[in-house]
Write a structure and sequence with these properties.
The chain has about 350 residues and is an alpha/beta fold. The protein has eleven helices and 16 strands. It has two domains: about 130 residues, translation initiation factor eif-2b, domain 1 (Four Helix Bundle (Hemerythrin (Met), subunit A), Up-down Bundle), CATH 1.20.120.420; about 200 residues, Translation initiation factor eif-2b, domain 2 (Rossmann fold). A seven-stranded mixed beta sheet has the order 6-5-4-7-10-15-16, sandwiched between helices. It has a four-stranded mixed beta sheet with strand order 11-8-9-14, with helices on one face. The radius of gyration is 20 Å and the shape is globular. The model has no long low-confidence stretch (mean pLDDT about 95). It catalyses: 5-(methylsulfanyl)-alpha-D-ribose 1-phosphate = 5-(methylsulfanyl)-D-ribulose 1-phosphate. GO terms for molecular function: S-methyl-5-thioribose-1-phosphate isomerase activity.
């Protein structure tokens, strides 16, 4: 499944707000179209957001191709700044913008048409690299998935959350491809229901047995010895291995620790943020309470009653069995062990 398609001048995004009922594509023709798609979660998942932002800069470059060089360089800087304001927690967004800015700085002597071509190629390279990284993550994580494993996952970490294949779901896909007889429990993942809508959709398409559970069922299943391991993705991983991921991940990690169940994080190294020592410094995105109070257009919370909506939480490194990346695996992560991924 390809959630991101580049047609040469605009970016086609599979609208994840419409799945699984409808497969509709959003044609992003301007930088603002891309920014709005990220902000409203038409595109979501840290790696996918990073790739979309890179293409947003490519769109901006093409639209500014008639500017003189000085104006172009100033304009393209503003494009990156606009995209950086879309969502604060997923570090892949900022990683992609920094990579594009570095490319521009390193080649500022080129003429504007050459810069536009270079920027466009780099965005395509970022998307291609993401698929390759995810496939490598799958291979590195394969050894942690036993035969007949019953796997619990949270949110969506598959093709829809990346440029293709997936991170945590990439490990699950690799296990299936290796002939392991696996099955998956997908947390529904309130309030956006990424697990129920997206993860279940992807796994069902791939003929991987999947059962959707409410987020609050996880502890019961662990207690009843129905879960062999937990694997999730990440939106930001700090220098000591603390990990920000979709709200509800921390609860799963605590439950897994209590029940002696391995808890794995699968993410590309573009998700690492060595500028932050610990997860305490990660900015947690606060989204609209209406996204909690209203489901499918129907109000579930009485009018006038407030609702909280932190989009992410942070799992301390001591609750994580291993962090699986395309460069290798860090078991029992801490600051010293994480340093090998720099």
């Amino acid at each position: 499944m390809e959630p991101i398609k580049w047609n040469g001048t605009s970016l086609l995004l599979l609208d994840q707000l419409q799945l699984p009922e409808k497969m509709e594509w959003v044609d992003c023709k301007t930088v603002e179209d891309v920014a709005e798609a990220i902000e409203t979660m038409k595109v979501r998942g840290a790696p996918a957001i990073g790739a979309a932002a890179a293409f947003g800069i490519a769109i901006g470059a093409q639209q500014g191709a008639n500017l003189n060089k000085g104006d172009f360089l100033q304009y393209i800087k503003g494009v990156g700044e606009r995209l950086a304001r879309t969502r604060p927690t997923a570090v892949n967004l900022f990683w992609a913008i920094r990579r594009m800015n570095h490319l521009i700085d390193q080649n500022a002597d080129l003429e504007v048409p050459e810069l536009v071509e270079l920027i466009t190629r780099e965005a395509q390279t970022i998307a291609k690299e993401d698929v390759a990284m995810n496939q490598a993550i799958g291979q590195h994580g394969l050894r942690y998935i036993p035969h007949n494993a019953r796997i619990l996952t949270h949110c969506n970490t598959g093709s829809l959350a990346t440029a293709g294949y997936g991170t945590a779901l990439g490990v699950i896909r690799a296990a299936q491809e290796a002939g392991k007889n696996i099955s998956v429990y997908a947390d529904e993942t309130r309030p956006y229901l990424q697990g129920a809508r997206l993860t279940a959709f992807e796994l069902h398409q791939d003929n991987i047995p999947v059962t959707v559970i409410t987020d609050s069922m996880a502890g019961h299943l662990m207690k009843e010895k129905q879960v062999d391991l937990v694997i999730v993705g990440a939106d930001r991983i700090t220098a000591n291995g603390d990990t920000a991921n979709k709200i509800g991940t921390y609860s799963l990690a605590v439950l897994a620790k209590h029940h002696g169940i391995p808890f794995y994080v699968a993410a590309p190294t573009s998700t690492l943020d060595f500028s932050l020592e610990t997860g305490e410094r990660i900015e947690i995105e606060q989204r609209s309470p209406e996204e909690v109070a209203v489901i499918g257009g129907k109000r579930m919370v009485p009018a006038g009653v407030p609702a909280l909506h932190p989009a992410f939480d942070v799992t301390p490194h001591e609750f994580i069995t291993a962090i699986i990346t395309e460069k290798g695996v860090v078991e029992s992560p801490n600051r010293e062990r994480m340093a090998i991924l720099k």
